[in-house]
């Protein structure tokens, strides 16, 4: 397997192993996706530590960095509050975290990395977290009668003709969430890899416009869609408790 995590290094846009380790006697590859995830997480942790120290010594006349931090927090709080209402305080930290992680992963292609969200293992893990949050909150805030009534909707609970379809739709939530994010990010990754691989030295400056669309614009849209769907599903699971 080839090594390296930079997209521009060759035309191949597949996931490659960097090195392998043995876990319980089995060989496990550490891939470029793992490396890129660690880089994104390291940047997030460093930024969080610096922001925390900055806010501990906040001034009445904030400088540029403090303004940026306050703007990020304000916008994320507003997004979660407008969607989840009274449930926002419980989930704002989680939603804000995955929003920043997915956005940074999507735009990491601007810095020559292979976006971690172009790996289905990453998007499926995020979607499964959302799925189990939905199941947990539904079991916590709704009675068995309410859950069964919802499964039979729009028909009455004594006529469960729609129950199998509603069950399938519930199971399909992590699949649709993960595939939507994965497919959109991977398509941009494939197109940019082909541009650099086929045009070579000709692709020097003008592909920046494509990066703006595939990495920045499309990446931001897919981040918003994923988080918005997560908030909607979880809010519906919490109900009107």
Automatic annotation (TrEMBL):
The keyword Cell membrane applies. One of its GO terms (molecular function) is proton-transporting ATP synthase activity, rotational mechanism. It comes from the Bacteria. SUPFAM superfamilies: F1F0 ATP synthase subunit A (SSF81336). The keyword Transmembrane applies. Its main location: membrane. It holds the Pfam family ATP-synt_A. It is found in: Cell membrane; Membrane. The chain crosses the membrane at residues 29-51, 91-111, 117-136, 181-206, 212-234. GO terms for biological process: proton motive force-driven plasma membrane ATP synthesis. CDD domains: ATP-synt_Fo_a_6. HAMAP family: ATP_synth_a_bact (MF_01393). Belongs to the ATPase A chain family. This is ATP synthase subunit a. It comes from Roseburia faecis. The gene is atpB_2.
